[in-house]
């Protein structure tokens, strides 16, 4: 008797812990999940390498890396930058406030060159700069902001300034002349400076651009679209409302049709939903509208697993087995059916991830996570809760599984 009461106590404590944890921490977890641009606004740009350039996979990845450095300058968290071979790069920036400035910064080649007095011959270019060697400084006499640079090879700058001593050496960013300082003395030590910046903010932008590095190929914008933050918020609200209605409908169905096992399935579905959101947060998954669709689809998969197991148990009860025996046999029979259904869906989602675009990849990642967690919840947690109730001697009547007396065989 004490053992049965102990099992019931464990069951109640486990259910209370699941529901209590979900109720108190789900909101915090949801707020910490990174949302895609379709949920919080932002914009997407598809770039393509201009014709006539040598482009391969490595060059594309280098260009994507340079773009990512620039995104860091903008301050956008979790950008989606995808290389689409043979010659395209897709950039998705969620939550960016100044879209025009972001587009300007991303599309700028940012090739720094020091040229001869005619402005035609390149003497030193951005490749000669030390990594992150640009910084904001001030003219000691005028206190005006300027940009200082450090060269990888000080001797090269020394030779150039010696050759063109007393002459202007124009400094260009792409094809825009920033300044044309006259070389007053031979520069040793590899330190150069760019003046003419009108404000500290302008000087800092130039420093950020130079430190981010030049994009190794010229890119042209193929297409772009923006999502307003309010539109993204409305889409998220509508999606969440639809999801809540779908989940409530599922809860009503499983409880009404499967009785007490349906209530256990409801608890496992709540645990499943919580674990999926927690996994999204821990893996830093960027959640999008397709991702929410995959999440809700995963709930359907989790319900399907519970239905398969409960139906197998009901079949065993109809042939006259006791509740404990039906539980053991039904669980064993349902395991491989549930496993096969989940593994085939994971394979399909894997194919979508490998060949799909960014939105499809987000859907497939969410679906894979949802299926794995649903399998653990349905096969693991459901059986643990069910066994606790059976051992507490509460689940001993077939009617609690929705099986009528006249359905039970006398064999």
From TrEMBL:
Where, subcellularly, is it found?
A: Cell membrane
Q: Does the keyword Transferase apply?
A: no
Protein export membrane protein SecD/SecF C-terminal domain span: 218-379
Name any Gene Ontology BP term: protein transport by the Sec complex
Q: Which domain of life is it from?
A: Bacteria
- Primary subcellular site in the record, as a coarse category: membrane
Q: The Protein translocase subunit SecDF P1 domain covers which part of the protein? A: 62-117
Q: How does it sit in the membrane?
A: Multi-pass membrane protein
InterPro entries linked: Acrflvin-R, SecD, SecD/SecF_arch_bac, SecD_1st, SecD_SecF_C, SecD_SecF_C_bact, SecDF_P1_head
GO CC annotations? plasma membrane
Q: Where is the SecDF P1 head subdomain domain?
A: 120-217
- Is-annotated flag, keyword Coiled coil? no
Alphabetically ordered keywords of this record = Cell membrane, Membrane, Protein transport, Translocation, Transmembrane, Transmembrane helix, Transport
Q: Which GO terms describe its molecular function?
A: protein-transporting ATPase activity
Transmembrane intervals: 240-258, 265-283, 289-309, 335-356, 362-386
Report quaternary structure and partners: Forms a complex with SecF. Part of the essential Sec protein translocation apparatus which comprises SecA, SecYEG and auxiliary proteins SecDF. Other proteins may also be involved.
Question: Which family does this protein fall into?
Answer: Belongs to the SecD/SecF family. SecD subfamily.
Role description: Part of the Sec protein translocase complex. Interacts with the SecYEG preprotein conducting channel. SecDF uses the proton motive force (PMF) to complete protein translocation after the ATP-dependent function of SecA.
Protein's name in the database: Protein translocase subunit SecD
């Amino acid at each position: 008797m004490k053992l049965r009461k102990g099992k019931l106590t464990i069951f109640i404590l486990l259910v209370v812990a699941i529901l209590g944890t979900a109720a108190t921490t789900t909101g915090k977890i949801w707020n910490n999940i990174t949302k895609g641009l379709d949920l919080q606004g932002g914009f997407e740009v598809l770039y393509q390498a201009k014709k006539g350039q040598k482009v391969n996979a490595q060059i594309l990845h280098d260009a994507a890396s340079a773009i990512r450095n620039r995104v860091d300058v903008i301050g956008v968290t979790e950008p989606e930058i995808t290389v689409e071979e043979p010659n395209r790069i897709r950039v998705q920036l969620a939550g960016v406030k100044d879209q025009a400035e972001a587009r300007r910064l991303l599309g700028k080649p940012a090739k720094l060159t020091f040229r001869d007095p005619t402005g035609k011959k390149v003497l030193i270019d951005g490749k000669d700069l030390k990594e992150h060697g640009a910084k904001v400084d001030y003219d000691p006499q005028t206190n005006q902001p300027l940009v200082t640079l450090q060269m990888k090879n000080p001797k090269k700058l020394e030779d150039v300034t010696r050759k063109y001593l007393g002459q202007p050496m124009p400094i260009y960013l792409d094809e825009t002349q920033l300044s044309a300082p006259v070389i007053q003395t031979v520069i040793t030590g590899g330190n150069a400076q760019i003046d003419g910046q009108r404000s500290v903010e302008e000087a800092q932008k130039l420093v950020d651009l130079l430190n981010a590095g030049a994009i190794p190929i010229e890119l042209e914008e193929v297409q772009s679209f923006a999502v307003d933050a309010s539109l993204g918020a409305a889409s998220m609200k509508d999606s969440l409302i639809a999801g809540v209605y779908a989940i409530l409908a599922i809860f009503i169905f499983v409880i009404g049709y499967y009785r007490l096992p349906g209530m256990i399935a409801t608890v496992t579905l709540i645990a499943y939903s919580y674990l999926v959101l927690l996994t999204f947060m821990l893996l830093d998954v960027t959640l999008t509208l397709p991702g929410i669709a995959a999440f809700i689809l995963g709930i359907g998969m989790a319900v399907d697993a519970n239905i398969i197991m409960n139906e197998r148990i009901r079949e065993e009860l109809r042939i006259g087995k006791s509740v404990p025996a039906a539980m053991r046999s039904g669980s064993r029979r349902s395991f491989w059916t549930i496993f096969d259904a989940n593994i085939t869906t994971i394979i399909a989602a894997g194919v979508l991830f490998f060949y799909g675009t960014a939105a499809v990849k987000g859907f497939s990642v969410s679906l894979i996570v949802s299926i794995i967690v649903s399998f653990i919840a349905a096969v693991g947690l459901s059986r643990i809760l069910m066994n606790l109730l059976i051992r507490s001697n509460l689940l001993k009547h077939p009617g609690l599984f929705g099986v009528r007396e006249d359905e039970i065989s006398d064999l």
